[in-house]
Amino acid sequence: MATFDISGDQFRYEGKPLRILSGAIHYFRVVPDYWKDRLLKLKACGFNTVETYVPWNVHEPRKGEFRFEGMADLESFARLAGELGLHVIVRPSPYICAEWEFGGLPAWLLEDANVRLRSCDPAYLRHVDDYYDELLPRLKPLLCTSGGPIVAMQVENEYGSYGSDKAYLEYLREAMVRRGMDVLLFTSDGPEDHMLQGGTIDGVLATVNFGSDPAGAFRKLREYRPEGPLMCMEFWNGWFDHWMEEHQTRPAGEVADALDELLKEGASVNFYMFHGGTNFGFLNGANHIKRYEPTVNSYDYDTLLGESGEPTAKFFAVREVLERHFELPPLVLPEPIARRSYGPVKLKRRALLLEQLEALSAPISRANPEPMERLGQAYGYILYSARVTGPTSGMSLTIQEVRDRALVFADGRYVGVVERWNPAALPLEVPAEGVRLDILVENMGRVNYGPLLRDPKGITEGVRLDNQFIHGWTIYPLPMESLEGLEFTSAAEGETGADSAGHSEISAASGPAFYQGVFEAEEAADTFLRLDGWTKGNVFLNGFHLGRYWNAGPTRTLYVPAPLLKKGINELIVFELHGTQDPVVLSTDTPDLG
């Protein structure tokens, strides 16, 4: 057993003063084989603590079904950190933000439109209690009070940026205490009056999050907490990227100067991030301030370790600052992880989506289009099909509340694209014999921050021809959790190409399709996949969903950690929405973040 507590303005571990020098590494964004490499690099940089969020949607993807293995093995991650001599800070708030899908909340919470998120709504709290009943007993043996490495835990995350329900915060604190979480508890908020007023509670350490002006941030905190240790729980040393925007960077010297100022304040710090990792699969989040902005696959974050784990200029600049304030051992880094280019991979076989619906989905009949969540679906795509009678002329098709991007087909012919951020109506002529209307909608990531957190996916209202709603729909949920039922045939070449605006014209013979190919790896090494000549879709390697690609940028490559490769033959499947003239993917040893 060990003690971690507060004495005056200091943290104490086993009765001795301790400055927390922490960095964030999210176990769920890094393949487990690389956890040790990343943790050793964190320690080599001069840190004594690792911090991680805990995403509810990873651990309870379906109500009552819990997952704590593989990349979700929080216990093994924390235990490994302790074995390497690191303290651990855990942030198991029901909500985490983190640019993660729905801020870590599970999509099934949206099945009930009446549930009030992040509040004292009894229905919401019942779900939180069920989750904590499973999660927190797993953490109890890992607390420092039980001889483990966890020294502190978060009650809620930046709640003052969202709400002011103090009873809710008190409930979460008591829920943790009742389940034996007897370590230091804290909140974290921005250094602004309304945030600190709404997000802090008595008897719980208040910390602040910022990327610059440490003195100003801590002055504001002291207005609310005159005593206690100063800590920046999120020192933003980089930033994340949205699709259709530029790659975000921050100079290493600017970060070093801000850190130096912070340490001169006598404060503790947690770097957000130390190593960002990757938003594998469909689990990237999105912002919605003025418009919907989905986050890219890479969570490189322009931080101390790149997406594939290599030390950056910031790593060495930060260590230099830490050496000025603390006595550090000599810098010793693990052996570099090998990278390799496996060259071009030709995808010679194809399966057209509209011909494979029955293999991928069990159709559901509804009078109206229904959002994913009401059909028990969390992620991926959903296809709505209806028969439209004719003739009609001079009318426009409107998708009322599409979330987030829809491709429209009439009798298999591409009509156009409707995007949440560009919800244009499409002209649609219906002949006398009528037409089959297919609308394929992509969930590009639920909003993870702010007042628009409730973000159901698919078609949330209806589909109209002018002012008349269309009824009688067959709905195909397409979560793409397994592609084993697909039947591939030889792919034709040169079918289609993208226009200057990046929207491809899809021929009736093509449409959204899966492309399959194989390549051989004599030895497994990290690599990056380039999809030049493709438009938008997803990549699956040996059944593992690497994530999304889009020629809108900024990201131009997908990171492939070596443990996902097999020595020998590897299968690559690309789901492409807009067709391609040349179904080739290039494996390279160089990332391109834009």
TrEMBL record:
Keywords attached to this entry: Glycoprotein, Glycosidase, Hydrolase, Signal
Active-site residues (renumbered): E158 (proton donor), E234 (nucleophile)
GO molecular function terms attached to this record: beta-galactosidase activity
Domain (Beta-galactosidase galactose-binding): residue spans on this chain: 512-570
InterPro entries attached to this UniProt entry: B-gal_1-like, BetaGal1-like_ABD1, BetaGal_gal-bd, Galactose-bd-like_sf, GH, Gly_Hdrlase_35_cat, Glyco_hydro_35_CS, Glycoside_Hdrlase_35
Residue stretches making up the Glycoside hydrolase 35 catalytic domain: 11-323
GO BP terms: carbohydrate metabolic process
EC class name: hydrolase
Domain Beta-galactosidase 1-like first all-beta: 369-479
Pfam families, sorted: BetaGal_ABD_1 (PF21317), BetaGal_gal-bd (PF21467), Glyco_hydro_35 (PF01301)
E.C. number(s) listed in UniProt: 3.2.1.23
Catalytic reaction list: Hydrolysis of terminal non-reducing beta-D-galactose residues in beta-D-galactosides
Family: Belongs to the glycosyl hydrolase 35 family.
Protein name (record): Beta-galactosidase
Species in which this protein is naturally found: Cohnella thailandensis
